[in-house]
Amino acid sequence: MNRDVEEAASQFVQRASEAGRSGRLGDFDALVALNAEMGHRIPEWLISLITTIPLCGLEVDWQANDLDGSIEWADANGIRSESIECYPGLAILERGFINIGCDSCGSGDSYFIPTDRGDDPPVFQVYHDVSDQAVARNRQNFVRIRQNAAVQSNS
To answer: Would you kindly state where each structural domain of the chain is located, as residue ranges?
Structure first.
């Protein structure tokens, strides 16, 4: 796993803890089974990341340039739902994108990563209503999102 990505994820969790929030570890067996179901599209580094650092279910606000948003990190069920059961994930899975989280504000514009760009890929928030063409609202890698993120508090 990319050391910078691991450190960014650990910092998400630390800041979440300080704000009274927590995530949970991904279920390794469920992710391995889902990966087989998806034709081994989930990168090994991502499986390792979400099974060793409690990101699943963690909500993080982010801001970059003139944009802002919120991501709730996915577990195996979320990845399955958003990648192979729901639009736009099912339309872009064949193009090499898998889900890593949803917009916790409820917009339906979930977050995806390309699986062919290494172990610190760009993160795209993909509009849910734009045909089969992936249109991204945000394009930052994990490390840059960490630098621009604020963990939501319980208040």
So the answer is: 3-151
Using DSSP's 3-state secondary structure scheme, residue 21 falls into coil
| Residue 59 β-bridge partners | 72
Q: What is the pLDDT of residue 141?
A: 54
Q: Of the segments 59-63, 102-106, 134-138, which one has the largest average pLDDT value?
A: 102-106
Q: Average per-residue pLDDT in the chain? A: 82
Strand order in the sheet with 136-141: 136-141, 122-126, 111-114, 97-102, 67-73, 59-64, 149-151
Domain 3-151, CATH class in plain words: alpha beta
Coil, helix or strand at residue 90: helix
pTM (two decimals): 0.82
